[in-house]
Amino acid sequence: METSDDTDFSRGRGLGGGRYRPVFTSENGRAVLEMSSIDPSVAVSSLPSPNGPSTSKELAGHLKSDHEDAEESLPGQGGINASQSLSKLELFGFDSLVNILGLKSMTGDQIQAPSSPRDGDGTLPNYGNPAEDPHKSGTLMGVFVPCLQNILGIIFFIRFSWIVGMAGIGDSLLLVLFCGSCTFLTTISLSAIATNGAMKGGGPYYLIGRALGPEVGVSIGLCFFLGNAVAGALYVLGAVETFLNALPQAGIFRDNETFVRINGTDVAQSISSPSIHDLQIYGIIVTIILCLIVFGGVKIINRVAPAFLIPVLFSVFCIFIGILLARNNRPAEGITGLSFTSFRDNWGSQYQTTNRAGIPDPNGRIYWSFNALVGLFFPAVTGIMAGSNRSASLKDTQTSIPIGTLGATLATSGLYLVSVLFFGALATREKLLTDRLLTATVAWPLPAITYVGIILSTLGAALQSLTGAPRLLAAIANDDILPILNYFKCADRNEPHAATLFTAFLCIGCVIIGNLDLITPTVTMFFLLCYGGVNLSCFLLDLLDAPSWRPRWRFHHWSLSLVGALICVVIMFSISWAFTVVSLALATLIYYYVSIKGKAGDWGDGFKSAYFQLALRSLRSLGANQVHPKNWYPIPLVFCRPWGELPENVPCHPKLADFANCMKKKGRGMSIFVSILDGDYHECAEDAKAACRALSTYIEYRKCEGVAEIVVAPSMSDGFRGIVQTMGLGNLKPNIVVMRYPEIWRRENLTEIPATFIGIINDCIVANKAVVIVKGLDEWPNEYQRQYGTIDLYWIVKDGGLMLLLSQLLLTKESFESCKIQVFCIAEEDSDAAELKADVKKFLYDLRMQAEVIVISLKSWDEPTEQQDKSLESLTAAQERVASYLAAMQEKSQREGMPLMADGKPVTVNEEQVEKFLYTTLKLNSMILRYSRMAAVVLVSLPPPPVNHPAYFYMEYMDLLVDNVPRLLMVRGYRRDVVTLFT
Q1: d(CA 831, CA 734)
Q2: Sign of the CA dihedral 412, 416, 417, 422?
Q3: Cα(478)–Cα(599) distance, integer angstroms
Q4: What angle do CA 83, 85, 88 make, to 5 degrees?
Q5: How far apart are alpha carbons 700 and 600 in whole angstroms?
């Protein structure tokens, strides 16, 4: 290279001021050109001169030092070339993936991904790698421990041995497997959904909402929140009651005493229970203490949680040590130690009636069956969502949730199965049924260890419930679905103090009630409702198998999720069909409330994917063949604003939306609203998007089922020609073009309208589309303006029955339901009138259409009437305008030596034919004014534009036809029937 060229080259002349510089690779000294966007203002002398370093090592060293200098001016360090130093991919027009995905953090702060479908504006967010929060939890403390604390609760300590005595070892094993399979399958579904992408706060609500939609997610999420809040109160009351039973002297008020007969004996024994006032006072105090711990945040909770869990695990260990050390009648009467005889005697079930204390009593009011025991035991396996409830506080949700939740589920299920075998072989059935605290009786070395385990297990479960519930409520509020929940919004990485305070008040209110026997089954229903929602979510996502469904958790199948959902339903009805109905009714009410009051959002849920796949399958099943007339639906293509001007904030004539609704039966069908922007597509693309959004909003505001499309084209004719050819898919293409009649063309002297109007009609005829032109659109009634009179049809040509069908569709609307239909037919001779009338009546009868048939003969057209005399002036004026236009064309043709031209096309003018057309439209107009002056709406066949006639002449024909008719529909069918005589 020469020196001058090299100087120009180094100065970066060319694309974007980029500069090419040689970069040497390894030892071969071969230079590779690299383009970088270094500021052209950098001095050329900063680079090696053409006569500079002679060796590759010197050049490489110089380039290396130059590169280090460039790195010192990175963003955040004030360098002048900061924004350009890494823009080596400017040729592609995008930033490097390193910057977009945050693979190389260039700044300290990263933009957070939107948590709600309303947060983004359609732009690509910068998903950076934020600094890891040291307070976030891992798998053990974030998921496994909370789940274990929630699952391993009071039922194991005070009711499990009683369940074994009532159901026997065999049915107890079946009971544990049945309930455990529900939570195990739910955990599998939860793991699959949780590993299918990044997960924010909200736990099961977040998963269900993104899979089944905002309405289902919020309804189940709020029910699950209520379940967790009330469950916290239940756990607190269980801990306080156990504490007062262990230390009766701690009670402030006198205990309640009840007398029961055990196994039907005549001797009644007294059973004392703590006072409800003691439960309330101690319960409020404990709730406040737990809420203060929750207010301390995840860091404090993680420090306190082991203090609750370790004594519980130690008490379980002491119980099993006591079982192994137990001997016959030691440590109490009825204890046999691990005995095969007791195992055999306790294998079978012994379902019976008991009193309210659970003591067998032939005269008791409560009969226990397997279904009843399912309701009693199932709360012992709930709590698997405790880890996912804290998803916002986890370091890695995709790893922690599956491993931690599944580990806690399998550990507790294994504990229950082993406990069934041990308790069944430990004592007699009578001992199992009468000793409610058998675990404390056999615990080694002291029964007090079990009391400590019971109290701490319930307090640990209450702590996890009070931790998860506020975060669940805050996640629902952050999605901004329900404005009423805005008070509970919480910023990322902040504690949901408002939601925690509300949960605390709710929990305290339930504690004050004291006796929650009526609420307890509903809480279980809420948990089952949530589990069923998770299973249904996974079932739907797995069955649809969308391209975005790629969970890292591979051990899942849609059939397992379906079985899990069915088990949830079976358990719900097994516990109580009444409470099942109540919980489902509450969830349904919340669903409809969210649908009405909530803000719309699109989360790409599974239902949308199902609708999409169903639409594709339906479209394929329709095929490309013509639809049978029995299944024909009007799909109108509504031309929004072709003639005249509308206010800027009104993208479509409001009456067009009303008319489009009139073409549907009971709202079934689809309309396509189209508007054309004149201009270049590259220049008007953004304007078209904005116009499309405005038109869609306006259609929704007018309550019209339809979609909006905006097309950019050089002219209206070109745009419509493209629309009529390409709009729609398969048999879901628009079949009727609807537009208003251009009444303003003569008044405002818009000479381009006739050619455009005729071109649109001809395009529709070529594309085999029906045409409906509305005259008097401003006078078209809305849904509240009731019309009276008749709907008159002037049936002149065969149109496949479209005009008849439109009249029937009008009758289905409230505004026209009081009208009657009149069909006017034209007979060439008077002798044909009677036969034609009979044929038309028979035809309408077979079509199940009620209408009055009126036959008009052609001779009656020649009878003079007052209206005809008034129309002669209009005819004379039209003839004069046509003659003037024709004379102008002939003069221009003679002057230029060209054939007759109109609108850039050669035309042929037959003056006699022009006169005939003018006279025909005049007579038809006179007939309409004579017979249909009081009609609510008139439908008449649309005459096609004559071939090789100027567009101006056709507009004169049409003006004569519509003159003085206030509301007129001109209809032209297409080459097929839309009604059928056969069933």
Answers
A1: 42
A2: positive
A3: 12
A4: 105
A5: 12
Does residue 774 come out as left (phi exceeding 0), alpha (psi in the -120 to 50 range) or beta?
beta
Checking if the pLDDT of 11 tops 90, the result is no
Angular region, 408: left φ>0, alpha ψ -120 to 50, beta rest = alpha
The length of the chain is 983
User: What average pLDDT score do residues 47-75 get?
Assistant: 44
- Give 429-482 as a DSSP string: HHHHHH-TTHHHHH-SS-THHHHHHHHHHHHHHHHHHHHHHHHHHHHHHHTTS-
Tell me how far CA of residue 616 lies from CA of 708, 728, 930, in angstroms.
20, 13, 51
Residues 659/780, Cβ–Cβ less than 8 Å: yes
Give CA–CA dist 368/117, Å, rounded.
Answer: 49
Q: How many separate helices (H) and strands (E) can be counted in the chain? A: 32, 18
- H-type alpha helices, 752-801: 753-766
Confidence band (pLDDT; 50, 70, 90) for 272? low
Please determine, for residue 275, whether its predicted confidence score (pLDDT) is greater than 70: yes
How deeply is 74 buried, as exposed, middle or buried, from its count of CB atoms within 10 A (0-12, 13-18, 19+)?
A: middle
Q: Could you give the CA distance from residue 965 to residue 940 in angstroms, rounded to a whole number? A: 11
- Whether the predicted pLDDT of 300 surpasses 60: yes
Please state, in angstroms and rounded to a whole number, the distance separating the CA atoms of residues 741 and 738.
10
User: Which H or E element spans position 774?
Assistant: strand 770-775
One-letter amino acid for residue 508 of the chain: I
Long-range contacts at 572-579 (CB < 8 A, ≥ 24 apart): 572/525, 572/528, 572/529, 572/532, 574/371, 574/374, 574/375, 575/371, 575/374, 575/375, 575/378, 575/521, 575/524, 575/525, 576/375, 576/521, 579/521, 579/522, 579/524, 579/525
Pairing mode, strands 268-273 and 256-261:
antiparallel
| Alpha carbon distance 851, 247 (integer Å) | 90
pLDDT at site 7: 42
Peptide bond preceding 551 in cis form (omega within 30 of 0): no
Task: For 773-806, write each residue's pLDDT tens digit.
Answer: 998 888 888 778 888 889 999 887 777 788 888 8
Helix (H) or strand (E) holding 298: helix 298-325
Instruction: Report which of 463, 557, 481 is spatially closest to residue 217, judged by C-alpha positions.
Output: 481
Handedness of CA 433, 434, 440, 443 (dihedral sign): negative
Taking alpha carbons only, the member of 715, 733, 736 closest to residue 725 is 733
Give whole-number Cα distances, 380 to 415, 425, 432, 671, 869, in Å: 12, 22, 18, 55, 95
Is 973 buried (19+), middle (13-18) or exposed (0-12) by CB count in 10 A?
buried
SS3 35: strand
Residue 68, pLDDT score? 45
Q: Which of 171-185, 442-456, 680-694, 901-915 has the lowest mean pLDDT?
A: 901-915
Residue 821's nearest CA partner among 788, 785, 850 is 850
Report the candidate in 800, 256, 195, 279 with the shortest Cα–Cα distance to residue 542: 195
Which DSSP string corresponds to 82-141? TTTTT-TTGGGTS--HHHHTTSS--SS--PPPPSSTTT--SSPP----PPPPTT-B-HII
Does residue 962 contact residue 758 with C-beta atoms inside 8 Å? no
Burial of 514 (0-12, 13-18, 19+ CB in 10 A): middle
User: Predicted confidence band at 271 (pLDDT cuts at 50, 70, 90)?
Assistant: low
Q: Which residues contact 5 (CB under 8 A, 6 or more apart)?
A: none
> Does the bond joining 445 to the residue before it have cis omega, within 30 degrees of 0?
yes
Q: Is pLDDT of 81 > 70?
A: no
In the numeric block, the tokens 């109905």 are attached to: 581
The Cα–Cα gap between 35 and 86 comes to 10
| Beta bridge partners of residue 854, listed in sequence order | 824
User: Which of these, 221, 551, 207, lies nearest to 388 by C-alpha position?
Assistant: 207
**Predicted TM-score of the model (pTM):** 0.69
